[in-house]
Specification:
two-stranded antiparallel ribbon; single chain; 2 domains; about 40% helix; about 10% strand; DNA polymerase, domain 1; Rossmann fold; 8 strands; alpha/beta; globular
């Protein structure tokens, strides 16, 4: 496959942000007088935006739906705590920086599409030194247009001026897969991300890879 543009997910695909997200979750829970959670639990709840993460943390249940006013209060606390420690322990997954650089050197325009709010996305990309690679960054400020809705991917394609059918999506979850399929895009999933326990090999992705650097071989950008 040789795409005309590449659209990448953020959390779980390029960035291991779970430690900082879990820290903010536990500060929120402590403030509300609730028991804290293990990193593994918080990691399994990431991927559908801040509000769903908070709902899951409050209920201790992936499908939990606590009382909306409590969720509103908890979201405000979480966002305040996360803002203070956005990139203390978050790191790029191995191979991300080099892979983005190879894409750029090949002239492939890049977009980042995430369900994460913009106030956290742009500073995180900057802190990790990869913001300059992206011609388009589409964030999750509108909860009605979160992945798996295809609109964020289609918006990114328009901003890259690349036809949707010539875009490659790189993600880590069933939401990325569903959004890409609905947008008519090729999709590759990474096995190491925040996939909520799903067996990605059972999904109908075009490929599943164990390292993001493997994408270079798939798009024929490996060294000769």
């Amino acid at each position: 496959m040789r795409p005309a543009g590449v659209i990448l997910d953020l959390d779980g695909t390029m960035v291991d942000s779970a430690p900082d997200l879990a820290h903010a979750v536990n500060r929120m829970l402590t403030e509300l007088g609730r028991p804290t959670v293990l990193l593994a639990a918080a990691r399994s709840w990431i991927g559908n935006g801040v509000r769903r993460l908070v709902e899951r943390a409050l209920s201790g249940d992936y499908y939990g739906c606590p009382e909306p006013l409590l969720v509103d209060q908890a979201c405000s606390l979480f966002e305040s705590f996360y803002r203070e420690n956005l990139c203390q322990d978050s790191v790029l997954f191995p191979g991300v920086e080099q892979t983005l650089a190879r894409f750029a050197a090949a002239g492939l325009p890049l977009a980042c599409v995430t369900n994460k709010p913009g106030e956290f996305t742009q500073p995180l990309l900057a802190a990790l030194g990869i913001a300059h690679h992206f011609a388009s960054v589409v964030v999750g400020d509108n909860r009605r247009l979160h992945k798996p809705d295809p609109q964020p991917l289609l918006q990114a394609a328009r901003q890259l001026t690349v036809p949707a059918g010539q875009c490659l999506v790189v993600g880590d979850s069933v939401n990325d897969l569903r959004a890409a399929r609905a947008a008519g895009m090729t999709v590759v999933l990474v096995s190491y991300g925040y996939n909520q326990g799903a067996d990605l090999h059972q999904l109908e992705a075009d490929a599943v890879i164990d390292s993001i650097a493997e994408i270079l071989q798939l798009v024929e950008l490996t060294e000769k």
